[in-house]
Specification:
AAA+_ATPase, 6-stranded mixed sheet, Rossmann fold, P-loop_NTPase, nucleotide-binding, single chain, ATP binding, 2 domains, 4-stranded antiparallel sheet
């Protein structure tokens, strides 16, 4: 059982608004996935659909190998998609024991899970005395009680101070290193880069990029070049290890860089080959920049 979740052409409309738009991706066991997007891009709606709390409009999804119902499959999923909700006057242990009772899990799991989230020392403190970070960690412990195959978190570090953020990210990475698959929604590129191995970037419900986090950062930019002899220019650039895909666009040659190189270096290299350029622009339009640009526009 290596595929945890398969999503095909999922769409959710609220009236005229398309919150999730023809979204497809797969979650494989053992990875840490981020759904990254600015506010309102459809992250929570996507999580809501796969967790059976929001009805889809079109498309489909299935958990694991698809052989059991979503209701059955969700018994192997741990999720925190709302604010942690526990009884304020009960201690951490008492709250988790209650969850054990509801989920039909042995009470012995409680201390094991409290240790994972670094709350064992505070196990007998009342929930109302906990900081926001501790409440979030208790929620993670609660979601882990039934040893789920996958842990789903919606904006796990929202509202926390830098220390709390650091602690939660460390705990998530630690849980992942023990073999639990993770899916988290975040509007923070930095968070996804630090915690995740894979990412789905959403914009207005549509996927902009699906793949590894390393792949997202791989772009070194591209050059737009013009010369009075375009054929000679293309020939001079071909075969050089720094230059990748090339394409002619109108009067220009577009060349993608395979490794970092600044424009002056490109100019010098071509000059040495007898090519004089009438136009040279280097641009780096990585997904990272596109994402930051997007986030800026929508906030
Ligand atoms: N129940 C609902 N009724 C109408 N519109 C909704 C409903 N739930 C979500 N939306 C809309 O769907 C879009 C996607 O919302 P969603 O909460 O999934 O985004 P998000 O990426 O999780 O953002 P955030 O982090 O702000 O929650 C938004 O425009 C939102 O206003």
């Amino acid at each position: 059982m290596n595929t945890i979740l398969t999503i095909n052409n999922l769409t959710k409309r609220f009236g005229t608004l398309t919150a999730v738009d023809d979204l497809s991706f797969t979650i494989e066991k053992g990875n840490v996935y981020g759904i990254l997007g600015p506010n309102g891009s459809g992250k929570s709606t996507t999580l809501g659909i796969v967790l059976n709390v929001v009805n889809k409009t079109a498309g489909n999804f299935h958990w694991f190998d698809g052989s059991s119902t979503t209701h059955e499959a969700l018994k192997n999923v741990g999720a925190i998609i709302e604010h942690p909700n526990f009884y304020p006057y009960m201690t951490a242990v008492q709250n988790l024991e209650l969850v054990c009772k509801i989920k039909g899990v042995a009470k012995e799991k409680v201390e094991e899970k409290l240790a994972i989230v670094d709350l064992l020392e505070r196990k007998d403190s009342k929930f109302k005395e906990f900081s926001l970070g501790m409440k979030q960690r208790l929620a993670i412990a609660s979601a882990l009680l039934n040893d789920p195959e996958i842990l789903i978190l919606d904006e796990p570090t929202n509202g926390l101070d830098p220390q709390g953020i650091h602690q939660i990210r460390g705990i998530i990475k630690n849980i992942a290193s023990q073999g639990t698959t993770i899916l988290l929604a975040s509007h923070l590129l930095d968070e996804v880069e630090k915690v995740c191995t894979h990412v789905v970037i959403l914009r207005k419900g549509k996927s902009l990029y699906t793949g590894t986090v390393d792949g997202m950062n791989a772009s070194h930019g591209f050059l737009t070049l013009q010369s009075n002899d375009m054929n000679a220019l293309e020939a001079a650039m071909q075969g050089h290890p720094s230059f990748g895909t090339m394409k002619r666009e109108a009067d220009s040659l577009i060349v993608y860089l395979k490794e970092p190189m600044d424009a002056s270096e490109v100019n010098r290299l071509l000059f040495e080959k007898g090519i004089s350029l009438s136009h040279l622009v280097k641009r780096k339009e990585s997904l990272e920049e596109q994402f930051l640009e997007l986030t800026k526009k929508q906030n």
